[in-house]
Amino acid sequence: MDPILVPKPEGLFCPAGGFFIDPVRPVARALVTHGHADHARAGHGAVMATAQTLDIMALRYGAEFTQSRQPYDGPVRIGDVTVSFHPAGHVLGSAQIAVTGAQGRIVVSGDYSRVPNPACAPFEPVPCDIFVTEATFGLPVFRHPDPLGEIAKLLASVRAQPDRAHLIGAYALGKAQRVIMLLRQAGYDGPIHIHGALQKLCDYHIAQGVALGDLRPATLERGRKPDFAGAIVLAPPSAFAATWSQRFPDPVICFASGWMQVRARARQRGVELPLLISDHVDWPDLTRTITELDPAQVWVTHGREDAVMRWCSLNGRAAHPLRLIGYEDEAE
Amino acid sequence: MTGGLAAFARLLEQLAFTPQRSGKERVLADWFATQPDPERGLALAALTGDLDLRQVRPSLLRGLVSGRVDAELFALSYDFVGDLAETIALIWPVDGSENPSLADVVGQLRDTSKARLGDVIVALLDNLGPSQRYACLKLATGGLRVGVSARLARTAFSKWANLPLTEVEEIWHGLTPPYLDLFAWAQGGAKPETAAYAPFRPVMLATAWDAVTMAARSPADFAAEWKWDGIRVQAVSDRGTRRLYSRTGEDISNAFPDVLALLEFDGVLDGELLVRRDGIVAPFGDLQQRLNRKTVSAAMLRSHPAGLRVYDVLVWQGQDMRNQPYDARRAVLDAATPALPAQIDHSPRLDFTTWDDLAALRANPSDPVIEGVMIKRRASPYIAGRAKGHWFKWKRDPFVIDAVLLYAQRGHGKRSGYYSDFTFGVWDGDVLVPVGKAYFGFTDAELKALDRFVRDNTTDRFGPVRAVKPLKVVEVAFEGLNRSPRHKSGVAMRFPRISRIRDDKPAAQADTLETLQDLLPK
What we know:
The complex is a heterodimer. Chain A is of the alpha/beta class. In chain A, 22% of the residues lie in helices and 26% in strands. Chain A has helices at 51-61, 147-160, 175-185, 199-207, 263-268, 283-293, 305-314, and strands at 6-8, 11-14, 19-21, 29-31, 44-49, 66-71, 76-78, 81-87, 95-101, 104-108, 130-135, 166-169, 192-194, 215-217, 232-235, 252-256, 273-275, 297-303, 318-321. In chain A, the strands form 3 sheets. Chain A has a 7-stranded mixed sheet, with helices on one face. A 6-stranded mixed sheet of chain A has the order 1-2-3-4-5-6. In chain A, strands 14-13-15-12-16-17 form a 6-stranded parallel sheet, with helices on one face. The longest helix of chain A has 14 residues, at 147-160. Chain B folds into 3 domains: 4-141, DNA ligase i, domain 1 (Orthogonal Bundle), CATH 1.10.3260.10; 207-391, 2-Layer Sandwich (D-amino Acid Aminotransferase, Chain A, domain 1), CATH 3.30.470.30; 399-517, CATH 2.40.50.140. Chain B is built from 20 helices and 20 strands. The termini of chain B are far apart. The chains are: A alpha/beta, B alpha+beta. At the A-B interface, α5 and α7 of A face α5 and α6 of B.
C-alpha cells in the first residue's frame, strides 16, 4: 500500500487523492495551507484552501491565479482519503491540513505558531500518526519573548527620539498586521503609516474584521513639506534598499522578525532596533507540540532539520527529514 | 528606568545597534544621568577596559555548557549564531528572573577563586534571563564588542559631565573603578587629586596648514621639523614607573617592552613611535605589525625593534615645562637626548628662511618615511587639545589613483537608504582587482549620483552588498600604501577617500595594479 503522502520535486504528493500540498511548481490540483508566497503559488489547475487564503492569493496574484478555487468548507473526501483543515495560528487564513486514509492520519502543519494572534484562530492540536513540522526556528537558541515586551521597547524608543521616524521592516502578509495589532493592544492609538505594498493586505484584514485603527499611506503629499518625525512607519524589508526610504529624516531602522534573536543578523541588516516578533513556533513550542501530539513519526521540513532530528532522536522519537526544495527557510 | 544587570544588558544592546558615534554618546549620557553609583562607573570601566576581573576562558564556558546541553545541539546552534557568549546565553536551559546589581556580578567575577569560578558562573546563569546572561558572559570574557572605544566612552562622559576631555584624560590613569570621585566631580564636587605615578598628559594637536594661514604669518616666528609616519606617543618615566601612552591616552606599555627599557630619564617626552633598524626608520607597515597587541614575542622584538623620535618635552626632572615657550622646551630636549639610548633621538629642526624654502623641503623630503612637515610657533606653550594658531601640519600631497567602482553597501544613520560605502579596484591585466574601500570624500550631491548609479547598474547582490557594472571611475586619494598579504591585491591603502568622480574617464583608462605597486615603500 502506498504511503498517504510522498515527497516529490513539486512538493508533498498524495497518491490516493491525486493532489499536492503547498506545491512549489504548477500542478493540476493543490491544497494550500496559507498565503505566504513560498507555500501559495500561482498557476495551479485547482486550489483548495480556506476562503481567506484564496482571497489572499487573488489579491497577490490576480483573480486568475488558478482555474478553479475550492474554498474549504468542512471535511471532504478526495479519492480514497478524507481531507480536513484546522487552524495553524500562523497568519490570517492559515490552516494545517489533515489527510486521513486507510493507513492512518497525517497532519501537514504548514507554518504554525502557538502564540495568540488576534488575526487567526489558535493552533488546534490534531491527533495524528505522522506530524509534519516546519523547522524555521528549530534550534534551542530560539526562544521568542513576549511580543508585547518588544512593542514596549519600540514605544520607549519612539518617545525617547521624537525627532526621528521609526521605520519597521515587516513582511506584508501577517507580520505587518501583527505589529499594528500589538501596537494597538499596547495602547498606541495614533496614526501608523504604511508603505503602499502593505495597503491591500491591511485593507483585507480590516474587511475580515481585524481592527487595525488609523492607517495612513507613508507618501509625500504634494505641496507639503514631508515630516515623519516621531512617526511609526511600516514597510516590507525590501523597501529599505529602495530610494523610498530616503524620504525619512535620520530613521531608526527596526525589523520585526524571529531572526532578530541573533545579534549578527540584526547588524548585517543595519537594524538599529531589533524587534523579536515571530509568527512561527520557537524551539520550546515546537518540541512541546511534538510531545503533546505524540505522533508515531515526525517529518521535518524547511529550516534547521538537523537539530529537530537530533532532538527527536534524543527523545526516542522516529523522525525523517523531508528535504523539500523551494521553501523559504529564512524569510520571516 | 530599571537598574541592575538588566539595565546594563539593555545598554550593551543599544550601544551595539546604534550606528553613529553621536547616538552612542547619547545612550551613554542617558546611562550616566539615570544610573546610581557604583553601577554607572562600573559600566564605564567595562567599556574602557579597566575592570580587572578573573580571566574566563572559552574552554571553561564550553565545559560548563556541555554539562547542560546536548553537544550536537550546541554545536549546531553555535554554528548558526557565531558567538560563544551569545550562544550560551540563548541556549542555557534554565531561566531565572533575578536582577543582581552590576556591582554584585563584578564582585563575584573578581573575587571568586579560580577553582570555584565555574560554579559561580553556573549559578549566575541559572538565575538570569537570556539578555542578562549575555551581559554577564561578555563581562566575564572581556571584550564587549559594542563598537565603543575607551576614548569614545571617556568623550561621552566628559560631554555629559560638561568637563573638558583633556582634564578627564589627564587624571584618568590615577582613577579606579567605580570612579565615585569622578562622578562627584561631574556633579559639582572637587576635581579628583591623582597621586598615581606616570599619568598621561593630554597631547597638543596641530591644525592643517594652508596658503591663507601661511600668508598671514612670518616665518621667523616659527620652527619646523619633519612629520614622521609612525604613531604619536607619550613616553613617561616618573620616579621609576615607566609608561608608554598613545595620543588618546591608551596605555600601550605591554606591547612595547623594548621602548620602556629605553626610558632612562625622569620626565615626559612627546614623540613618534617608529620601527628602527640600525638607525634606519622602517615604513609604517612594519610598525603596524606591532600595534594592537597585548603582548609581543621575542622574535617580533628582534625583527621589528621600536624606538622613539622625540620632538617635545612636557615634564623634565620634576619640572612641568608646559608653560614654557616651544624654543625653551626644545633647548632642554636637544640637550637631553644625546645622553639617552641611541634608539631615542630628537627630530631635527629644519633650516629655512622663507615659506618657499620650507615648501621646497616638503616637496623633497630626505627620508621615505616622512609624510610632510610640522610647523610650530616658537613662543607657544604646550597646550592640550587642538588649539588654533600654534602647531600646524603641512602634509605631503596625497597620492591619487583612478579606480573603478566594484561593490557598494548601504550606509547607516543619515545615510541609511543610500549606497555610501564603496569598494573600488584597478586593472591587473584584463581583470579588476579590489584595492580598497572608501565611504567619504564626496559631497551630498555626489553621494546621490553614486547611489543612483549603483541602483541602475547592479549586477549581483550578496546580502547588503551590491556588485555593480564596472563603468564608474572615481579618483581615490590616500596617504600611503603598504604591502598586505590579507588583501587579494597585495596592497592596503591608508586613509582612502573618494576625491572626485571621473565621469570624463572610461573604465578602461583607470589605473593598473602595477602603478599602485610602484608606490609601495622600497
